[in-house]
Design goal:
CATH class: Alpha Beta
CATH architecture: 2-Layer Sandwich
GO molecular function: phosphatidylinositol binding; phosphatidylinositol transfer activity
InterPro entries: PI_transfer, PI_transfer_N, START-like_dom_sf
Region (Disordered): 221-245
Domain Phosphatidylinositol transfer protein N-terminal: 1-96, 108-219
Strand order of the largest sheet: 2-3-4-7-6-1-5
Number of helices: 5
Radius of gyration: 18 Å
Distance between the termini: 14 Å
Order of helices and strands: EHEEHEEEHHHE
GO cellular component, one term: cytoplasm
């Protein structure tokens, strides 16, 4: 099992991030789901944690067969997906700083992602989502400049601790590193850029508003994926277990 912690600073308040992240995840998942690949939501429901109280549990399948390199395709079924389980006991997370806290000394792999300057795959680039030219009409924020996290108000940091497990002898280490580098990093970086770029679309929504939006898009996305998979063979998918805490 390979665990990494990603830290992503955002020019938002914690409460804004709560709404913006839910909006972004739903829309991003919908836009990236086509041709039988994308994000299928298996479960999304309230859950009570003995320590943190009422929160939201989600389980998703990220279908990505065509995105696998040839050395993985040789060993996995034609229908391949990652299983992601997430427990969101909002705001049970350390977010009110600039990403400098050391949560646990045992964590040796900490990756800071910069939504302004870190490169994303060319296929995901959109001029209107470029934060160096973005400006929010509703909040007056933007564009972002080099060193923005030390100057921006508001500012917060999202901590994403992700455990990836692929227990296949001879392929485990290489595959887990691939999933972190090509899948998890890109999803987090692109998604958080979009959450900021789409500020004027979600700003002002209530939690109830964004939950309705989330439910509507999840149903649309699941229907797209199920329709496409029905045309394929019923070969079982090989699941990776990814736990996003």
């Amino acid at each position: 099992m390979l665990m990494k912690e990603y830290r992503i600073c955002m020019p938002l308040t914690v409460e804004e991030y709560r709404i913006g992240q839910l909006y972004m995840i739903s829309r991003h998942s919908s836009e990236q789901s086509h041709g039988g690949e994308g994000v299928e939501v298996i479960c999304n429901e309230p859950q009570t944690h003995p320590q943190h109280g009422l929160g939201q549990f989600t389980e998703k399948r990220i279908h990505l067969s065509s995105k696998l390199p040839s050395w993985i395709k040789m060993f996995v079924p034609r229908i391949f997906y990652i299983t992601e389980k997430a427990w969101n006991f909002y705001p049970y997370t350390i977010t009110d700083d600039k990403g400098d806290d050391n949560l646990e000394a045992m964590l040796t792999v900490v990756i800071h992602l910069d939504i302004l300057s870190d490169k994303i795959p060319e296929k995901h680039y959109e001029q209107k989502e470029d934060l160096s030219s973005w400006r929010s009409a509703k909040t007056g924020r933007g564009p972002l400049r080099a060193g923005w996290r030390n100057e921006s108000l508001p500012v917060m940091c999202s901590y994403k601790r992700v455990e990836c497990s692929f227990e296949v002898y001879g392929l485990q280490g290489k595959t887990e590193e691939f999933i972190h580098k090509v899948n998890i990093r890109d999803i987090l970086l692109v998604g958080h850029r979009q959450a900021v770029a789409w500020t004027d679309e979600w700003h002002g929504m209530t939690l109830e508003d964004v939950r309705r939006f989330e439910k509507e898009l999840q149903e649309q996305t699941n229907n797209k994926l199920k329709s496409k998979h029905a045309q394929k063979s019923d070969q079982c998918g090989k699941a990776l277990s990814v736990f996003n805490k």
